[in-house]
């Protein structure tokens, strides 16, 4: 058995507005907008697919207060594309943010709810990822995160150093998953988290047990009786194991 990273979930005080922002920012579409969540997916890709990690925005009344440990890096294919993208993001409501990045070649922005993301300079590595180059996670130990997530999912580990671990789907399509070493401690629940799905026909309970054996732990933050299982990885990042699909 194995499982897949199918989407990231963002908390928002105005989920519909944030969904519209990310749909326009990525050139995707809003595929669902219920009282509880807003779904953003690319056109021409049937969910779930390794070609894209979709976005699920959850209605949460509590505003963002600390820097996110999970963020998106957006890819650009040329300097002209980068300039056009930055201008379009500004029109959509993105704002520059200083998180102590210093003099770097990429641009750090925040979406209308304050979620940090980066617009990268053109890089060959991300030329064929689509608009999302990578889902990036702050961590203390990239080696440990590569071990856990490399065994948890059907994604290959491409690189591991003391500073970064980089994974990508076994089909070598879609964005990378990157764990970047940072000294910042985790505080509270993450504003952005992973949603995983087992494959059709797999057993949700058995897959949850497999993840626990790898080092995941159960988390009860008051979610109640839900169809999915809430777990944390070895660095206490929450993630949800959804029903097989």
Automatic annotation (TrEMBL):
Coiled coil: none annotated. Signal peptide: none annotated. Gene3D superfamilies: 2,3-Dihydroxybiphenyl 1,2-Dioxygenase, domain 1. Residues 131-244 form the VOC domain. InterPro entries: Glyas_Bleomycin-R_OHBP_Dase, Glyoxalase_6, VOC_core. PROSITE patterns: VOC. It comes from the Bacteria. This is VOC family protein. The lineage of its organism: Bacteria, Bacillati, Actinomycetota, Actinomycetes, Kitasatosporales.
